[in-house]
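User: I'm curious whether this sequence folds into something compact or stays loose and floppy. Could you predict its structure so I can see for myself?
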Amino acid sequence: MQDIYVVGVGMTPFGKFRDKTIKAMTGEAVAAALSDAGVSADRIDGAFFSNAVQGHMEGQHMIRGEIALREMGIQGIPVVNVENACASASTGFKLAVDFLKAGNGDCCLAIGAEKMYSDDRALMFSAFDSGWDVSNGDEVAQRLADLGTGVEEPEGSKSPKPYSVFMDVYAGFARLHMKTFGTTQEQFAAVAAKNHAHSAHNPLAQYRDAMSVDQVLAAPPITYPLTLPMCAPISDGAAAAVLCTGEGLKRLGLDPARAIKVKAAILRSGTDRPPEDYKNHLTRLAAHQAYEQAGLGPEDMSVAEVHDATAVGEVIQIENLGFVEFGEGGPASLRGDTKIGGRIPVNPSGGLESKGHPVGATGIGQVFELVTQLRGEAGARQVEGAQNAIAENGGGLHGVEEAAACVTILGR
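Assistant: Here's the prediction. I'll summarize afterward.
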């Protein structure tokens, strides 16, 4: 089976862009990725277009990729539309890898694009309402929020303004972690402060202002223990990656020195399990598969991008990826183990909390960052000597965990 490489990446800034269409952002990201790879659009053998909420926001429920790509000359090839909630783009990336491994071509494109921001706030926040079983959505939301029962919510710790119902769910996960392991609000705040400090050096990030732990704690509350800077914003944006087989690299005359090898690409769905059974969390299981496929372990990772839709997400995921023992994610974050220059830098891009979270683009946004790091091209946020990198991206909720999760390992 052939080795697969990422040979080009492109990404728009993430943010709130009232005047940019999905088509325009897709064109910008794809043009950047093709230019980075040194490949013309007519050399692409297949394309995987990831998007989660365009149907909800704009009514474009079908043929999203075919519409977004045709004007830039990508037509007449297989175009596959991918929707897997917040894991859409990493799922599309995984499918592009499989497309090439199956011998369907030499060169493939994976794209994620999303336009989420709207002046219609009810429409915007309701985009997340189908990220679980809608047949009993209120019951599911309440059950997940109740995971944190037993941890007192201080007076004034809930926002009077509208916010995504997923924040109540993440707060439930956070309070369960606090109840089980003694994790503190200060430790969650340390995650957010670290990510905001990282994003100050990322010109494509939605937010670029560094924050201290005290500033994060003093920020407006969302729902305890989460304050506003601990939560990912509503974002627009797009990201793209060009992938090639080893033979394709030669045939297209591409520079192997800038090609980054895909060492593992794993996609899993969740399972029914008790909430306290952390060792069988789907990301934990996906990480084990990825490490086995890559022939590597957590100790071999130089840098990671994880799905921190809230700060608690990063704490949970660095435990799932094996960087620390269960229950040690909070203390490790407060010590600075996960900052650039620390033992295992996590989210040097600023993560979802600060870089932004256009859900259908997020997974390839992570790939963009890791490829940039492995090439040594990340500037002031560069992780020195990065050799292997891992990305974790989850989507939706089913039971007591994400409905889907992807773990990807890239390396020199």
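Summary: The domain at 131-234+264-411 is CATH 3.40.47.10 (Peroxisomal Thiolase; Chain A, domain 1). The mean pLDDT is 96.
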